[in-house]
Design brief:
468 residues; 29% helix; TIM Barrel; 2 domains; 13 helices
Length: 468
């Protein structure tokens, strides 16, 4: 699947917004154009062999322009709270109408606009302790509706790592959702690349290479393991039985960049050699990789949090945004916090607009070439062999505190093998066998043949069935 995934477009207040403050779920926001324009976009993507997925928000409504509290109070369940206020009523009195509203919203986007799938935002913030869970009921409606005629994908964001929602039937086809955004692998990639250990990164800073190996081999890093960031709370469910296709891996997303105070991309924080190696791991591993807009050419522009609320709410959002960073040593000084861009300022939005002409110039052109080459190799060597691989019977060896060797059995019986050294020291290991698919620029044939791995290097090989 090659797809374009859009952030939410449901009608929101103001001229620009990330989309997660939508208040009219059936209405594409006028800032983007008319519904007919969106349909043309989808058709144009399909004509180029691209699927189109849309991010939808079923865990809350935006704080401005939502009048459901006034004329349909049963849409909310005061027994539950979310970070955005009273929870949507998925399991209280009168919830049938509410559940149907969101199920039909999902079907509306898929049927009316011919979208190929949806990404369900933060299902961990959906309060539903009934049975079936709204995600399961929505998935069944999709499979019994448009899913009967064509391939449809439901992608989850779920901080709880509940692998139950990724279960397969005997086909094997997804039952409730196709895949989940794997935040775990992002966090461990980020720690390896930057050395940061603030906030939730502390859970990944002690043994990052072991956790990276677990993510690549089994999906989630946290599968019921205790989280130090969450004061020892167990997080996640076992996921090793699932196929790699159940996990969407990435180095960057709108959340992980935009929720930084200054919206720095990974290319602003990590050395280019490190990014070359990490990108090679991401794009050639069996799980489907995802790129954030501009990542493919190391865009110079940040991606900041932006919105456009009325004066009173705008002031509260700006102040709240800056308070979020009080706990970081870097922002202990109020003067430093005052430097954090105002989300409501027009200049904040303008600073995020990509400069597409940069792809013609260094260093951006070389980064784009690197991504293009890796994606071409993925299409040639890996994608045709993914069908039928089940969980890939992964074999993982930790070579050092920053290096690993990992292989998977693909659907045709061949084994795809990775050796990666993601640290500052060279290592020596057993030379890999099979056909060399890719090696980072800092590895030559002699080094590979001798098993020498330079700092920040990665090599991929493919071995035929039966070859050790």
């Amino acid at each position: 699947m090659t797809a374009l995934e859009l952030m939410p477009i449901a009608d929101f207040p103001g001229r620009h917004n990330w989309g997660y403050d939508g208040v009219l779920p059936f209405a594409p926001d006028a800032a983007y154009g008319r519904p007919e324009g969106f349909k043309r976009l989808v058709a144009a993507a399909h004509a180029r062999g691209l699927m189109v997925l849309l991010d939808v928000v079923y865990n809350h409504f935006g704080p401005e322009g939502n009048y459901l509290h006034a004329y349909a109070p049963s849409f909310f369940n005061p027994r539950h709270e979310t970070p955005w206020g009273a929870a949507i009523n998925f399991n209280g009195e009168g919830c049938r109408t509410v559940r149907d509203f969101f199920i039909h919203n999902a079907l509306y986007w898929l049927e009316e606009y011919h979208l190929d799938g949806l990404r369900l935002d933060a299902i961990h913030a959906i309060c539903d302790d009934g049975s079936p869970h709204i995600v399961a009921e929505l998935g069944a409606a999709v499979l019994e509706g448009p899913g009967r005629e064509r391939e449809i994908h439901l992608i989850l964001e779920n901080d709880r790592n509940q692998s139950r929602f990724l279960a397969r039937d005997e086909s094997p086809r997804w039952r409730y959702a196709t895949a989940q955004w794997n935040d775990d692998i992002h966090h461990v990639f980020h720690v390896l690349a930057t050395g940061e250990s603030d906030g939730y990164y502390r859970d990944y800073a002690v043994e990052p290479i072991r956790l990276l190996g677990r993510c690549l081999a089994e999906g989630f890093a946290f599968q019921g393991h205790a989280s130090a960031f969450r004061d020892g709370e167990a997080r996640g469910e076992p996921s090793a039985h699932l196929p790699p296709a159940a996990f969407v891996n990435f180095l960057q997303t709108h959340d992980q960049i935009g929720n930084r105070a200054f919206g720095e991309r990974l290319c602003h924080l990590a050395h280019p050699v490190a990014l070359e190696a990490l990108t090679a791991v991401l794009l050639l591993a069996p799980p489907p990789p995802m790129l954030f807009m501009g990542e493919e050419f190391a865009a110079a522009q940040p991606f900041l949090f932006f919105c456009d609320f009325g004066p009173e709410l705008a002031r509260a959002v700006t102040e709240g945004r800056r308070r979020e960073f009080e706990r970081f040593e870097r922002f202990a000084d109020p003067a430093q916090r005052a430097r954090i861009p105002d989300p409501n300022a027009a200049a904040t939005f303008a600073a995020c607009v990509l400069e597409w002409g940069a792809i013609e110039h260094p260093p951006h052109h070389a980064v784009l070439e690197h991504h293009s080459r890796l994606l071409a190799l993925r299409r040639q060597w890996i994608v045709p062999r993914l069908a039928g691989m089940d969980n890939g019977a992964p074999q993982l060896d930790l070579l050092s505190a920053r290096a690993l060797a990992l292989s998977w059995r693909l659907g045709d019986g061949s084994r795809l093998a990775l050796v990666a050294n993601l640290g500052e020291d060279a290592i020596e290991t057993v030379p890999a066998t099979g056909t060399l698919i890719f090696a980072t620029a800092n590895l030559d044939a002699a080094a590979l043949a001798a098993g020498r791995m330079a700092p920040w290097s990665a090599a991929w090989h493919l071995r035929p069935e039966g070859q050790p």
